[in-house]
Amino acid sequence: PTTAQHAAEDMLGRVPLIIDGGPCDVGVESTVLDMTASPPVLLRPGGVTAEMLENAIGGVALHPAVLRGLEDGEQARSPGMKYRHYAPSATVFVFEGSKKTVAKTINSRYDEYNKGFQKTVIFCDAKSAPLYAGKDVRVLGAGMREVSRSLFSELRLADDKKCRVLLFHYTDDMGLAVKNRILRAAGK
Questions:
Q1: What tens digit of pLDDT does each residue of 86-106 get?
Q2: Domains (range + CATH), the chain
């Protein structure tokens, strides 16, 4: 959760008190690194990026489950790999690739889903937003820091608005932690 209100919604009745320290600065907070391996293995990307880790300690390997989820029978090496955490009620589709190709696909899907009377929202960064003029778009911010800070709040807002389909335009500028969280929201 990124706010005390989100924590209250998630933990209703399970904790006696929640102290509100304001919204989280990062949003996709926890980075989990397995230091028992050589090189260390990034199990869950977060606010401390792979690049920051590499600059501080040298080579870091990326666990394959970060981008594909756990396979049947595969053991989770960290709780962040196993649990879905917050995921919206809506069906989530993630698109990445060349900007024009992704925009064409998302615009087509948006029109298709809206014809079927399914409330559909496009999630993207500020640079991609002009590609979706006239559509219901949630701009997550400009750059990795802003996108990661707003991601969970925007997913919750989509739930509050009873959205049925979320079309997510992922760009590399959003960072690995955002990619990991949206793939998990999409059930991967």
A1: 678 899 999 999 999 999 999
A2: 4-82 (no CATH), 91-185 (3.40.50.11030)
